[in-house]
Amino acid sequence: MSTLKTLTDSTADGETPAAPGVDPPAPSALPLSDNEGPADEGRGEPSRLGGWARSGLSSLGWGLVGAAVVVALWQIGATVAPGVPKPAESFGKFFDLVSDPFYDNGPNDKGIGLQLLISLQRVFTGFAIAAMMGVPLGLVMGSSRRMWKAANPIVQFLRPVSPLAWFPIWLVAFKDGGKASVFVIFITALWPTVLNTAAGAAGIPSDQRDVARVFRFGRLAYFRHVLLPNALPSIVTGLRLSMGIAWMVIVAVEMLAGGAGIGFFVWDSYNASNMPAVIASLLIIGAVGFALDALFMRLAAKVAIEEVRS
Predict the structure, then answer these.
(1) What is the signed CA dihedral for 107, 111, 114, 120, rounded to 10 degrees?
(2) Predicted model pTM
(3) What domains are there in the chain, each with its CATH number?
């Protein structure tokens, strides 16, 4: 009777009765105190921002330490080898170059900004051609075993060839050093794009292939919903590698081609025994390469996030 009375009282109070011998469920949340409310939900945001700020300051601090060590070793090396310019001299030349980067006094006397723009135009043109050809070829190679067997030996045979070895061939074909440089960049950027795209297309999970087969996806639906989303992170990785290699190669190619570009500027400065300008050019080349790589890293992170969310 006491148990029945307890159940009856709980029901009358609007509560769901618990079965005899079973503990009542725990409350879903603790009651709010007088000082708590929805406004307190945003208190975690400043803490998160503080953590990011501390992490950023820590990275900046250690980066400055590393830079200081490099500059110190540079100073020691310049002291031992008198022909190498010292850091103060090189940084002075660097600021001199960037103070007026876009002057144009003729074909052989252009500012460092114009030289960079010429090189970037060549790199992006060759890179774009490589991407337009490499991504579709890689998707086909990764999706078709027969295409992989047919194309992979050719790719592996041509991939180890030095990019500079292609320059005479393109120079004979186009009779122009600038166009030859573009197609050297194209052949340089092609192989990482093709191989990484093919690896991404070949690595699609079998369960997703089975789902596409069960739902009878057409070729377009399979491409949009299965192939491209799974291969996209590998595609971006291949493009990032291609851009990094292309930016390294353009300097060497422009030394051969002559005329204009950041590589020509480095070689011309060396021939003029202007070593501080050579070192300053290296700093600029490194800064541009760092910016390009950071751009592709952000793109890769965004693709990875979208992949997880999907």
Answers:
(1) 110
(2) 0.78
(3) 106-309 (1.10.3720.10)
